[in-house]
Records
---
Amino acid sequence: MAKKMKTAAEVMLDVLYENGVRHVFGIPGGNSIPIYDALTHHPLNLILTRHEQGATHMADGYARSSGKIGVVCVTSGPGATNTLTGILTAMMDSVPMLVITGQSITPNIGLDAFQEADILGMSFPAVKHSYMISDPQDISRIIKEALHIATSGRPGPVLVDIPKDISASLIDPEIENDQDLPGFKDIPVADPVDIKKAAELMNRALRPVILAGHGVILSGAGEQLMQMAEKMNIPVTTTLLGKGGFPDTHDLSLSMPGMHGTAYANKALTGSDLIIAIGARWDDRITGVPENFCPHARKIHFDIDSVEIRKIIPVDCSVIGDAKASIEALLPHLEPGDTARWIKQINRWKRDFPLKYRKEGKLRAQHIIEELATMAGTEAIACTDVGQHQMWAAHFVKSEKGENWITSGGAGTMGFGLPSAIGAQLARPESMVYTIVGDGSFQMTLCELATAVINKLPIKILIVNNRYLGMVRQWQHMFYENRLTGVDLEGNPDFIKLASAYGMKGFRVKRSSDVRKTLKAALKWNEGPCIIEAVVEQHDNVFPMVPAGAALDEMIIEAPRRKRSGEGEDQ
Amino acid sequence: MDQSMKHTISLLVSNKPGVLTRVALVFARRGFNIDSLVVSQAQSPEFSRMNIEATGNERTLNLMLTQLNRLVDVIHAVDHASDDVIQRELALFKVNCTPDKRTSVLQIADTFRGQTVDIGDDTITLQVTGKSTKVDAFHTMMSPFGIMELVRTGKVLMSRGKESTA
Ligand SMILES: Cc1ncc(C[n+]2csc(CCOP(=O)(O)OP(=O)(O)O)c2C)c(N)n1
Ligand SMILES: [Mg+2]
């Protein structure tokens, strides 16, 4: 009896499905047609996007909101190169992603064939790992390895390049080659000696601060972190990506530190005698110049990735392992010290230097962001784009769960906000999803409105329209004597007309007094996505701000009171 | 202050296309120049051995070692700066050598246990093997005669005794 043969593409889709994948994001092309052909009769859902970059950010938002891998499938050449920005974004933020690219037929590779690009070579510096398949019988092994590599340890993107003749080959699905990963290291388990040392430092500390990063969320260590912080009475500051790993609403929360961090988080770090970093990689947006970063505090670093240890900041103790397991091992060794005076001091800072803005007068970005976040509640998923609005979202969205806060941190990729929200809504259809985008960022991927509309995703898209590339304008204003260049977004479309062109609902709000009313209507709107365009004060700057290169305690806490001519910078 | 030092790194890697590029990128990204590089199949054909010499400060090098070890295709990467390992290099020297100088050139070569591999009217080609410092010394001795061409293989290494090379 003849064996039932399948194409390698079909076998690949089966492997994905068996491993829990339900959605694939992408756009087809000549060299990925065999894969798309296999999708026609497969239970995997294809989400057709309008641009491959959008597909990667959707997969990214899908992964961050669900903890499951996001999968992208595109064609060769420009289709493949269009994914690079999204791959970098996922790499920088440790997001599990599988990017499958079509490739020219094997005999044509290296001959400048139509739509041939050396995507494997281009991927090297931006992926956790990448493959090109040269034997169709290898496909299930490689896809399984790719899923494993992308999701285990510190997650990241994996690219698999599949020549068209390979994906179209008929193979015996029963034959499966063994996995072959001799160089893939197991997840490290924390050394008990390091755990003891960390505990000793923590038990003795008088002014400790926990710096919690994305690793806390990725390892699901929120509860353990909470136990530790509460038991020891230690305040917790969460990085931009660690937001939600410890609730912003908790008494011990200091919110975000760093360049645009809260004054109290930065004062706490500066005044501390021990910084306990957990799954945080001492990003330069937090530390500034490493030599000047809290030189008097001792430091402990918990991380799953040994590359991060001492990469930037010298530490007194390092614990290499999964955050959750490490904290669990640490807890029994912890004995509460006396941090009461320290907490008192921190509470004074919180009282004296709160985040603030003016609610009366012109509509402020902060106002509508805070109102939207409050009305949507902490069960809703908040996505953001990149710029001033992102920092204000970090300030005013109160997060209680890591998987409900989705932002591009390491890469700071403009255009992330809309597609990541689409991915999140597909992963979690029951949750409310809103995305806070800038007028500049939004226009980088706005073609994905079509994707949101055809899939009837009830995403609330708040466009914070200051008609500027605001964050760059802020730098030019503050550090280049207000010489504005290349930041005026003259030529913005009418966003409400844009919404209607896509067959969507659009709301516009210009006055503070209309904020609640408009948001109420928008949050009730459930027939597909809607745009809320907030026309906001153009010249507001984000504060606090630590100028680049300065130490945390040199931060500018509030906008200077004096007015510049023609600017209403009087928050 | 960090001292710039010469390091010899040995790697055991998967024997697959592209691995060398991935390894080289780790060096290039930090602006580390590779002084020498030897790649060959390991005992088992699924693996290759790489020996890389590079100069740079200790801290960057340690970071690069962890980054190399993180690569999926790298089984392990070790720095041998301070270890006692067997290190060898082979070099070919093509030297200006008219018949009247032949005796002195050959005498020096003999001291270094060099071998004559080719001889012409006014050139001589010598092969020297040994520690890199020995090859350096031979280089110095040959310079006055006029070196026309020189090629060195780069360093290979192996641990002593029963211990297997990391
Ligand atoms: C793809 C990309 N290009 C350029 C930048 C540099 N950049 C950072 S913030 C910013 C301005 C963003 O403008 P907008 O989306 O309107 O947000 P705003 O700062 O005005 O709130 C720019 C250009 C970037 N982060 N990403
Ligand atoms: Mg803007």
---
Amino acid sequence: MMGTSLRQKQQQPPLDGLAPISESEFSFTIARVAVAQICQSVGFKGAQNSALEALTDITTRYLEAIAKLGAASCNSNGRSQSNLPDFIVALEDLASIQAVAAKRSFFQGAKRRLLKHKGDNKRWYCNGGSWRHVPSWLPPVPVVEEQDKEAEGKKGEVKWECWEEREEEKWECGRETVERKCDDEILQVSGKRGKVRFRMGVGIR
Amino acid sequence: MNGQSSQQQPKDGRHDDDAALTEFLASLMDYTPTIPDELVEHYLSKSGFQCPDVRLTRLVAVATQKFIADVATDALQQCKARQSAVIKDKRDKQQKDKRLILTMEDLSKALREYGVNVKHQEYFADSPSAGLDAASREE
């Protein structure tokens, strides 16, 4: 008796009147509810079905675009897990203007932390665990005078401190000139490193 | 440099940008975005965006919510502009104001500024000669 009733249950469709839907339709339906709630919070009292579905499609595409750009940004930096700068880069690529201000504030903080160790390389490895990835024989951050106006006049080359103010306009062309300028100003390497000798042709018989 | 390392900064007056960002990330946990976390994680993992930090997931949800809210606000303004352009007596106008409906027309106008081209067919005809004058039709 129990066996036959179970078999009858399995032959029936899972829910009366509802066919099983695919996984993408399922997430689309949930996204549609969320988008409808957002529209309601903005002030709409109702929506056409086609308009709501079009907006939901755009929402899913926007999410996937952010994810794809963020993943590409982190992969190009040799990481597999994305973090906040990757997300900001993704927003910038999507031309969401608000991301630029967030990126500037984030990199200002990072740069300030770096410049705190100007002229003193002992702090690289002494400062807890946050700088242990930096080798101790690296020279310290060079101490450069605060001459912003001079830097402006040199054919568009900018000093490292003024970098982030001009970052948005001259990101592409300024980067190479900044790197060249930093090479000129690197001081002597503090701390002796052992000499390395090579002998050519040792392995050839 | 992820959100974790920015939290270790001491909060000086000079680090107010950093502190503001850290506080914002912390406040994200108090505010639940309209788009559920699981849905956002589903779409993020679908495209390869791995992130163990739930705050970043919420940040993505908030960014998306803001984008959709901007589009919806623009569509609402289009709807209201269209209603105010229609000159009718006051009673009809008030009845219409209660019925702000998101239509394809308003949505496509709003989305055009974001670079999304959503065009709706004006009408459908069952033959190429439908709607033409009888004189120009070849019979």
